[in-house]
Design a protein that fits this description.
This protein has 352 residues and is α/β, with parallel strands linked by helices. The protein is built from 14 helices and 13 strands.
């Protein structure tokens, strides 16, 4: 069974030959793994870890994209600055282009990007280089998550409570880009990928960042629209949401989401036994190996035991793709823990 078939079999809640594996990490981790394996490319690292997936972004060609001496701006006009820390560097949001706007008219007058400027060379190249892998395509973050970057987190949360017209306008303008962008992705590059990925971080470790009523008003409708477009083209929808998603999972499933990442098991209500019992026949779990307590702080035996437990629980009857409980493995994770995680998943998590 090749990787693509293995992943799609699991998503359809059937048991493949072995547990499907996914991987991604911060650049410092990838560099360390390249050195360890004696390889020169990212694909070689993914292959050495037996990863069945490749997460590939669309290509953006926008006039907003620019770099100054202090900041880098993306195609939305959002600025970031590179910050150093003990493990390397990361990008921190620094400029929210809608932060000072006070009216709907100002927001509508902003120079919003258009999906006409998208292209998909990277997806085409990835499919050509990895014809047997499950290719996961992404374009940008989803409506709520991107709104917090455009407006600023605190300001947008205030908008949700006190300025609903502004909050709704921002989300609608963002999705006014995303909906046709997904259509373009499928029309121009539908043969080059298998799963559509979008991130929308609306939870923290204790629970949702908003009430169920707000979630159903502002977020669930556009998740359902993403799913409708994705399913029309016969693909699967993978939603990234960190933290404690349990209270919202019934609505997320009802919206049509097929896979959930990263399954932060240290968050409230996210024990794998309960997730599988309550939602395992409706949702594919993607990730789940605890980055905070096990991968970063545990022993290799702790990591191995966690992989085997999650395979036994989440992997029953398919519906599970193993990976880190955060999209990107962080530099404070010991190399030996990364290696034992992937060795265990490949060598010991077999269905037949």
């Amino acid at each position: 069974m090749d990787s693509r078939t293995r992943v799609l079999t699991a998503i359809n809640h059937k048991q493949p030959d072995r547990l499907p594996i996914t991987f991604d990490a911060e650049k410092e981790v990838i560099a360390a793994l390249m050195k360890h394996f004696g390889v020169k490319t990212r694909d070689e690292v993914w292959n050495a870890l037996h990863a069945d997936t490749r997460l590939i972004g669309a290509d953006h060609h926008y006039h907003h994209i620019r770099t100054t001496k202090k900041e880098s701006f993306d195609f939305w006009g959002i600025g970031q600055v590179e910050q150093a820390y003990s493990g390397g560097t990361y990008w921190e949001y620094s400029t929210a282009p809608l932060a000072k706007m006070e009216t709907v008219a100002e927001i509508n007058a902003y120079d919003w990007p258009t999906p006409d400027e998208l292209s998909f060379e990277s997806l085409r190249e990835s499919r050509e280089n990895n014809p047997d892998k499950a290719i996961i395509a992404h374009i940008t973050h989803a409506g709520y998550f991107k709104a917090t970057h455009m407006r600023g987190m605190e300001a947008f949360m205030v908008d949700l409570g006190q300025n609903p017209e502004i909050a709704e306008t921002i989300i609608n303008r963002i999705n006014g880009y995303i909906f046709p962008a997904i259509e373009r992705l499928y029309q121009d590059a539908g043969d080059f990928f298998d799963i559509f990925y979008i991130a929308d971080d609306f939870c923290d470790a204790k629970g949702p960042l908003m009430s169920p009523r707000m979630f159903r008003k502002y977020i669930k409708p556009y998740l359902a629209k993403y799913a409708e477009i994705v399913h029309t083209y016969g693909k699967k929808l993978l939603l990234h949401t960190c933290g404690s998603t349990r209270k919202l999972l019934p609505d997320i499933i009802d919206a049509g989401v097929d896979l959930m990442e990263p399954i932060q098991t240290s968050a409230a209500g996210m024990a794998v036994e309960g997730l599988k019992a309550d939602f395992g026949d409706k949702m594919t779990f993607y990730g789940s190996i605890d980055l905070i307590n096990v991968l970063s702080k545990g022993s290799p035996d702790d990591v191995r035991n966690e992989v085997l437990k999650n395979f036994r629980v989440l992997g029953k009857n398919g519906g599970f793709i193993v990976g880190p409980g955060h999209t990107y493995i962080q530099p404070d994770v010991p190399l030996e823990n990364i290696l034992i995680m992937y060795e265990t998943a490949f060598n010991e998590c077999r269905y037949r």
